[in-house]
Amino acid sequence: MHSEGEKGYPWYFFSLTRAWGKSLLVALLVITGAGVLYLWYNRVATDLAPDSSLGLSYAVAGTLCLGLAAALYTLRRRSRKRALGHLNAALHWHVAFGVMGLALLFMHSFGNFNLLSGTYALYSLIALVISGFIGRSLDQIIPRLIATEVHKALTAQGEDRIETISQQLQHIVVHNTQELAAFDVTPPKEKRPRRFASSPDLQTSWDLAYITLEETPQELSRDTPQYRFVPEKRSPLTRPGGLIPGAQEHISALHSVQTALQREQCYRYIIRYWRVFHIGLAVLTALLTLWHITYAAQLLLPTLFH
Amino acid sequence: MFKPVLLHKTGPQIAQEIQACIGCNECLLACPALAEPITIDVLNCQTLSGSISPAVAHFARSCYQCGACVDPCPVGLHRDAMMMLLKVRLLRSGWEE
């Protein structure tokens, strides 16, 4: 498990690849260009509405970007003609097209956020892009959290710690049980003093109440569940190796490993279900966008043909 | 939808999986985190022991355990579990320093 080369698994890992740089540059150029056009149009034009010529151009460009964001990555994932690293580039373009689509459709609204179909579609799109960014952040954080939990669950040699601890615990329990079983707690019968008044060896006590067949408080407490056997100092159980200590420590170590495994499973679910959530939001956005396009087409088409 | 199974595997289990790897590269082709091409042999060699090269370390740090590499494997291996062991090795080596 020891390595000499690269070391460390830092929390913040950043590497600017060529595909990422290219997609980032294109996204910045498109958003800046569209923003400049938006500002210029705001100054020169009077028709600042989503169904103006520039508003419709933004709508078409934004929808195209969203379509590309969804289609390119999905098709690349399912494609049989793939090369190493191409899917990573497709993922960067997926993010870039998503951000471009959001920016263009935001400009398409021209600040009109009336509770109409388009506003719902835009809100859904905002939620989709935010969920994408949260997902990318989780992708950065959660594998590191999982690695920390797995580190607790594996020994230095890469073996299962639960098994190792269980074996050690079993050894302790077996050893201690055998030692305790071999140790005769009760003194030999012949040495036990006779307690009965009828015994001929025993002198009749002047106080008859002293001799009783009832159990002593020590004998009673031995039967309680809280009773803990503590050998005497001169007992053979106190010799080195007589009883192996550490059973409680092993049990608590076992509990901590089990907690680590539960956390690992939970983190894995977060990674996977966040993807499901993102895809669900994408489907919802697509449906709301279709609803908005249908609604807008019903309004626009009659004006275009007359 | 997803089976409640643990992501990680032990060192001996990973060693068995690496032995069973046929080197078809399907897992790497399906990986959205791999930016720079690396060979499956190098990755397999460095997963369990020995020094970790900058390219393999970069890939391990970029991998986000999405599990996209598991389904395309024709022999049913778990590349995500192998990557996790590599990450634990990187993590421990960082703490040792």
Task: Summarize the structure in words.
The complex is a heterodimer of chains A (306) and B (97). Chain A has helices spanning 18-44, 53-78, 86-109, 117-153, 161-182, 217-222, 247-305. The N and C termini of chain A lie far apart (77 Å). Chain A has 306 residues and is mostly helical. Chain B contains five helices and no strands. Chain B has helices at residues 11-20, 26-29, 40-48, 54-62, 79-96.
Helical content of chain A stands at: 55-70%
The rough form of chain A would be described as: elongated
**What shape does the CA trace of chain B take?**
globular
What is the mean predicted local confidence, pLDDT of chain A?
82
Number of strands of chain A: 0
Amino- and carboxy-terminal Cα gap of chain B: 41 Å
In whole angstroms, how far apart are the ends of chain A? 77 Å
Low-confidence region ranges of chain A: none
Please report the number of helical segments of chain A: 7
Q: What structural class do helix, strand and pairing data of chain B support?
A: mainly alpha
What letter string, H or E per element, gives the SSE order of chain B? HHHHH
- Biggest sheet overview of chain A: none
- The count of helical stretches of chain B stands at 5
Helix content of chain B: 40-55%
Q: What gyration radius of chain A follows from the Cα positions, in whole Å?
A: 38 Å
| Structural class label of chain A | mainly alpha
Low-confidence stretches of chain B: none
Cα gyration radius of chain B (Å): 13 Å
Name the quaternary structure: heterodimer
